Predict the structure.
Amino acid sequence: MGLYGNFLLDSGVVHVSDAGGWDVIPTKEIQMDTSWMARGNCATHPPSTFFPSDGVGVEIARHVCDGCPVQSKCLEYALRNRIDHGVWGGCSERQRRRILKARRAEALAS
């Protein structure tokens, strides 16, 4: 068992932390295909580029993401896996939180 950010791995299940508590997801439901990452514009940049400490750094990372062939896949990966840090798919942490909040609101409305 181990705690990794918002994930707690424990014998065949992943517990995902959210503001409302922990959700349990059987690991067989989690798809971790990351082969697409090698095709991203980010593959030729140091990882630190995508984990900036200020707004200027976020803009630099977004610029790298512009026109990336796997940008939408990258963003969806970050959203699905609740990645809290860094720029993924051209979106900052704050933007991803807003997207998730809008998706939850949409799901509740339908």
